[in-house]
Design a protein that fits this description.
- The complex is a heterodimer of chains A (530) and B (405).
- Chain A is mostly beta strands and 530 residues long.
- Chain A contains 1 helix and 42 strands.
- Among the domains of chain A are: 3-75; 82-171, Sandwich (Immunoglobulin-like), CATH 2.60.40; 446-525, Immunoglobulin-like, CATH 2.60.40.
- Helices cover 2% and strands 53% of the residues of chain A.
- The radius of gyration of chain A is 26 Å and the shape is globular.
- The two termini of chain A are 32 Å apart.
- By secondary structure, chain B is of the alpha+beta class.
- Chain B folds into 2 domains: 4-333, Creatine Kinase, Chain A, domain 2, CATH 3.30.590; 345-403, Arc Repressor Mutant, subunit A (Orthogonal Bundle), CATH 1.10.10.
- Chain B contains 17 helices and 14 strands.
- In chain B, strands 1, 2, 3, 4, 5, 8 and 9 form a 7-stranded antiparallel β-sheet that branches. In chain B, strands 12-14-13 form a 3-stranded antiparallel β-sheet, covered by helices on one side. A two-stranded antiparallel sheet of chain B has the order 6-7.
- In chain B, strand 8 (178-181) and strand 9 form a beta hairpin.
- The longest helix of chain B is centred in the N-terminal third of the chain and has 20 residues, at 62-81.
- Chain B is globular, with a radius of gyration of 21 Å.
- Chain A binds chain B through residues 3, 5, 7, 33-34, 36-37, 39, 57, 59, 61-64, 67-71, 73, 225-227, 342-343, 346, 351, 354, 356-364, 367, 369, 371-372, 407-409, 530, and chain B through 20-23, 84, 97, 140-142, 303, 308-312, 314-316, 319-320, 323, 326, 354-360, 364, 392, 394, 396-397, 402-403, 405.
Chain lengths: 530, 405
């Protein structure tokens, strides 16, 4: 979460109503100086604005004085960083009768009018004070449509330099669209299994959220109201390096949309953009989110071009080695650890005839396994107490090494492939398949993740994605919901550049999402919290 | 006769510099401040990995080093403020991966072999100095597990328990908690103290440490510590890192609060203190800390209770620490803390168990309390015997340990 760092303009002590309170309250006036944690420029609308925040301290020196810095919490910062809100920002199935527009901060007592646009119509309106320092307005959606519109539709609000949007999407069918969230624009794809948010503005099109619809659980959820680097404590990002360190250029690389389209029972989101202008390094990422299975595939490419050389000076002699890039690739799946990192969460994969587990008991601890690769082509991230399981599949012929990182508030799976020589005008990349769910099994013979989702007309559909060694697929899958058990065949599906995966589904017409859920596949039982 | 002649001492105080965006200023810019201060003050002020390393020259008395500490820090504060920066004296940064020290150099020594024997005698006492100086209860996002994360994590390899050495088989070395350092200034360097946030405390602590090392320098025995004494010293080192001045040490076969040991050490080195122009009563902060068993980490931890977000904590922490005397006032007002019992066998096993997750390389057992191989291996065996962990020997990885829930 982002937060403001300001420079103090003045401090006044407030009278405390509680005489017994040893600390005192202070009103701190400040000007925004940067946005933490990346220390980016503050929003243009805060330029020269004097803002006020309240602080409690036993010793006023703890706050500082004029000219000093002051750090705000994300919650304190939100009205200034994201002044304009529209509620609901997203709705399913039908237009809400009204949309509530809130301006949480304005520089004086007279806020500007705002405009809402939809269906080619523009509606202007004025705010009224909300009694909490902000302003509010209610806009009937009927203003914009004479008949019920085909969905999705977007209502775009503009107020001075602020923008916000509400999107109304169809219920019960897959969709994908660019939407505006407080933390930025996202390419959202939604189907019966998942809500997937892909970041277009930064992190090279990483996955910011992977929400399981049935349980409304985001497997990449980040802690609220704590200052943190985007994606650091939750999310999927891809990485490359041309030296010791993973490049941070992808963190700030915004990708533009190549296409959102529906094809072959899946929704595709293709993004592409420039990572390094001078080096002429471009990247693209293509997601396919499957309709019928809890499955996402990701294809990442890095294309190295010839770097710009505009110098007219005589060129020094070059050898072929001068045009070589040594490129290493990786991805990083970050999620919140359970039990503060001392237990619970772990990463699993097969290593020959044993199930390898990586769970550091200490924080700020990185484990890299240089001596062997994940030849079975899978890794499972397990958070057993909240029943969150992430299964990553990758090519068995060119598998990565396992690496994990355990931070104070995060556990990561960050496999890495060995360096490879790359020439200008060549591309390198990798493909992944990702599944997530609430039950999982893992043994040296394979791993699976099972997920469930409510059916539109009642009941529950269960599905399972597995990667199994030869011969295990024939053992099929078994789902148990409430007291009812169903078996299902496991069918093999070929995922391009990832290889064979197995999948199975079963419907429980009388099932409920509140029923206890269990599964098994390939003779591999579900894992249980210890 | 004393190993040290003349009796001198100094400190290298590693102080972070932060700007008004709360960034830690980097080495390339700090070098400019260091150079300016060195020219102005005639003292060897340098840099050490993103800190201003304020070396206080060669001192012969408490008054002299106190005056220099004030002069250097006042001038340094002014120098960095011209660039809208502040000094941030703390043992670690709540967010950044930085561990900072107040190394204390004790001189003047010319007998390296004698210094190596002295290292053995100091093994028992350096944990007491660590407890007194504990001031890193936050480090890189970790909060409150130790009062000195810096000592627990060996300052990224920059302060390590000393080996037991034989002068006949020794090479030059570096980085011990306390060790002979003849390469530059001929001194015994006590590296274990965390960076002080209070300049008065630093002056007192440097004088006390120097006097105590001088006092130990009067003994000529060449006895090597027993394996048991070495283990006790390491247990005590861990206790100091964990509990600061609340620690209880394993001391000559019995549990003893470190505050009592420090109290005794202060009396033992009274003559040596006198040689440095000080009486015990001059060390008012040290005396008060020992009496109340509070250290700088206790003050900082109080702040952390009010700022769970590490960015807000770092902001408040740096603003208070720059005043130099916040801790002095805290000690005066603080309530006394109780000693924490000596870790028994179960507690020691629990600490070794705590570093074992799933698939943990067995070498982590060495890091838990810095025990040498036979002791750490025995801990692993006991954990296995008790059914608390499992051991797997895996080709291409070695020996892995897994906690059994």
């Amino acid at each position: 979460m982002d937060a403001l760092l300001g420079k103090i303009a003045g401090i006044t002590r407030e009278e405390s109503p509680d005489a017994a309170d040893a600390s005192s309250r202070y009103r701190v006036r400040f000007k925004a100086a940067c946005v933490l944690p990346r220390r980016g420029a503050p929003p243009e609308w805060l330029k020269d604005q004097v803002l006020t925040v309240s602080r409690s301290a036993g010793d006023a020196r703890e706050i500082g004085g004029p000219g000093d810095s002051i750090v705000l919490t994300p919650r304190e910062s939100a009205p200034w960083l994201y002044p304009l809100r529209i509620d609901p920002p997203l709705a399913h199935g039908a237009l809400p009768p009204t949309l509530e527009v809130r301006l949480r901060w304005w520089k004086d007592d007279k806020p500007p009018e705002f405009e809402m646009r939809a269906n080619g119509r523009v509606h202007s309106a004025a705010f009224t004070p909300d009694g909490d320092g902000g302003f509010t307005a209610s806009v009937p959606t009927s203003v914009f449509f004479d008949i019920a519109p085909a969905l999705p539709v977007t209502f775009a609000v503009t107020c001075d330099r602020f923008q916000a949007a509400a999107t109304i999407v169809p219920a019960g069918e897959p969709w994908a669209r660019k939407i505006a969230l407080l933390e930025g624009e996202r390419y959202r794809c939604e189907n019966p299994w998942f809500v997937v948010d892909v970041s277009g503005a930064s992190h090279g099109g990483g996955i910011a959220a992977l929400r399981e619809r049935g349980r409304d659980l985001d497997h990449f959820a980040r802690p609220a109201d704590r200052i943190q680097t985007p994606f650091h404590e939750g999310g999927h990002t891809d990485r490359f390096r041309t030296g010791w360190q993973w490049s941070d250029k992808l963190d700030t690389a915004g990708l533009s949309l190549g296409a959102i389209r529906r094809e072959g029972g899946a929704t595709r989101i293709d993004l592409e953009g420039v990572v390094d202008e001078g080096q002429n390094l471009r990247t693209s990422v293509a997601y396919a989110v499957y309709d019928d299975l809890p499955l996402i595939t990701l294809s990442r490419d890095f294309r190295f071009g010839k770097g710009k050389d505009e110098s007219k000076d005589p060129k020094p002699p070059r050898e072929p080695i001068d045009d070589l890039f040594g490129v290493g690739l990786s991805f990083r799946a970050a999620s919140a650890p359970e039990r503060n990192g001392t237990g619970g969460s772990r990463v699993l994969c097969a290593h020959e005839d044993r199930l390898a587990a990586a769970r550091s008991a200490e924080v700020n601890d990185q484990w890299r396994f240089d001596g062997w690769k994940m030849k079975d082509g899978w890794a499972l991230v397990e958070h057993p107490h909240r029943r969150s399981y992430l299964l990553y599949l990758f090519d068995r012929q060119t598998p990565p090494h396992l690496a994990v990182w355990h931070g104070p508030n995060v556990i990561t799976l960050e496999p890495y492939w060995p360096f490879q020589p790359v020439r200008a005008d060549e591309a390198v990349g990798f493909q992944l398949a990702i599944s997530a769910g609430e039950a999982a099994g893992a043994m040296p013979e394979g791993a699976w993740v099972a997920c469930r989702a409510p059916l539109p007309d009642g009941g529950v559909r269960c599905a399972l994605i597995a990667r199994l060694r030869a011969g295990k697929t024939e053992e099929g899958a078994r789902f148990t919901l409430g007291g009812e058990t169903r078996t299902a065949d496991l069918r093999q599906i070929l995922l391009p550049a990832v290889g064979l995966a197995a999948c199975g589904t079963a419907d429980f017409p009388g099932g409920q999402m509140s029923d206890a859920f269990d599964a098994e596949a390939g003779g591999i039982p579900a894992r249980r919290p210890e | 006769m004393n190993l040290f002649d003349p009796r001198t001492f100094s400190t290298d105080w590693e102080i972070m510099v932060v700007d008004r965006l709360e960034r830690c200023v980097q080495t390339d810019k700090i070098a400019a401040f260091a150079g300016a201060l060195e020219r102005d003050l005639g003292l060897p002020v340098h840099i050490d990995w993103n800190t201003l390393e304020c070396a206080m020259g060669v001192n012969a008395s408490l008054d002299q080093i106190w005056e220099r500490i004030r002069t250097v820090t006042d001038r340094a504060t002014q120098a960095v403020r011209e660039w809208d920066c502040d000094l941030f004296p703390a043992g670690a940064h709540p967010i950044e991966p930085m561990f900072n020290a107040s190394h204390i150099h004790v001189g003047t020594i010319h007998d390296e072999s004698g210094g190596i024997h002295l290292e053995h005698r100091l093994l028992a006492y350096t944990p007491a100095f660590a407890a007194l100086a504990a001031n890193s209860p936050f480090a890189g996002g970790r909060i409150g597990g130790y009062k000195s994360y810096r000592v627990r994590y060996q300052a990224h390899g920059c302060t390590r328990p000393a080996d037991v050495r034989d002068p006949a088989f020794s090479q030059g070395t570096w980085g011990f908690d306390a060790g002979t350092k003849m390469q530059g200034a001929p001194t015994v360097e006590v590296r274990v103290p965390d960076c002080a946030s209070s300049r008065r405390l630093l002056a007192e602590m440097a004088t006390f440490v120097a006097a105590y090392v001088h006092y130990q320098g009067t003994f000529k025995d060449q006895e090597r510590p027993s394996a048991e004494a070495y283990r006790d010293a390491l247990t005590n080192r861990w206790s100091a890192a964990r509990h600061g001045l609340q620690a209880t040490f394993a001391w000559k076969g019995t549990p003893r609060p470190v505050a009592e040991i420090l109290d005794e050490m202060l009396d033992e080195c009274a003559d040596a203190l006198g040689a440095l122009g000080a009486r015990r009563s001059d060390l008012r902060l040290v005396n008060a800390m020992i009496e109340k068993r509070v250290c700088q980490a206790d003050w900082a931890l109080g702040l952390a209770e009010r700022y769970p977000d590490t960015y807000l904590l770092a902001s408040a922490y740096s603003k208070l620490a720059r005043h130099w005397d916040i801790f002095d006032a805290y000690v005066a007002e603080a309530s006394a803390l109780d000693p924490v019992p000596l870790p028994d066998e179960d507690a020691i096993l629990a600490e070794h168990l705590a570093v074992i997750g799933e698939g943990t390389h067995f070498y982590r057992s060495r890091e838990a309390m810095s025990y040498p191989p036979p002791v750490a291996d025995a801990m692993v065996e006991r954990l296995i015997e008790r059914g608390l962990i499992r051991r797997d020997i895996v080709e291409q990885q070695g020996t892995l340990l897994t906690r059994i829930a």
